[in-house]
Write a structure and sequence with these properties.
single chain, Tetracycline Repressor, domain 2, 2 domains, 11 helices, mainly alpha
Length: about 230
């Protein structure tokens, strides 16, 4: 499934590195729109890393699918690992950007929490590549995530949004006052994440049809209700 991936900022160049665009970039006619070129590379690389992991993905394949070259990819991202970090940054930037557009501050606390949980469920279900990237990075014990200050910065507003909704709920008397906002965020993520990451094995083991519209809607409502009841006074 293709996703629109917003490009991360172009990395700073090492001192003394030539600023000239590679000859094959000029030949391809892509030098007029480097941002589009980077976005195309990131979109294809996202699918490749999600499907094959860091070890299995090949720069040659990414170059072929984007009609660019290895030289151009290295020009923009410096290395395979650098491209992988940029893919992670773009993936987190996209979900956090859309979260910010929910305008939870304009909703009463329980409605805001329901909206956030439902969004998380819907987004992760519709973007399995994001789940696979996170699973792959966990296999690396967060090694490449740790290299990015951008991702850590992106996740600060996510926790702040949960905390703001929860605090308003406590102040209004709707929520109990002994829930940690980070733990609440983890619980929301865990329920929605498992719904995608384990759906195939769970479906086979227990003989449940999880992909039908009715099953998707029922699971969505169940997760929303579990979270709301967890914090409700």
């Amino acid at each position: 499934m293709n996703q629109t991936v917003h490009p991360a900022p172009k990395p700073a160049r090492k001192r003394g590195r030539p600023a000239a665009v590679p000859a094959d970039a000029a030949d391809s006619g892509r030098t007029n729109d480097p941002e589009r070129t980077m976005a195309d590379i990131l979109e294809v690389a996202t699918a490749e890393f999600a499907a094959k992991g860091l070890a299995g993905a090949r720069i040659d394949e990414i170059a072929a699918l984007t009609r660019t070259s290895k030289r151009m990819i290295y020009y923009y991202f410096e290395s395979k690992e650098g491209l992988y970090v940029h893919v992670l940054e773009a993936a987190y930037a996209r979900i956090r950007r859309i979260e910010s557009e929910l305008h939870l501050e304009n909703l009463e606390p329980e409605r805001a929490l329901r909206t956030l949980v439902a969004f998380t469920y819907d987004y992760q279900l519709a973007n399995p590549d994001f789940i696979r990237l996170v699973m792959n990075e966990n296999m690396h014990r967060g090694e490449y995530l740790a290299r990015s200050t951008t991702i850590r910065r992106l996740n600060v507003p996510a926790i702040a949004a949960v905390e703001e909704v929860y605090r308003r709920g406590v102040a209004s008397g709707a929520f109990r006052p002994d829930v940690d906002p980070v733990d609440l965020h983890m619980s929301i993520s865990a329920l929605c994440f498992f719904n995608v990451s384990n759906r195939h094995t769970f479906s086979l083991i227990f003989g449940r049809e999880l992909d039908s519209p009715a099953a998707v809607a029922a699971r969505r409502e169940s997760i929303v209700e579990m979270i709301v009841r967890h914090v409700r006074r």
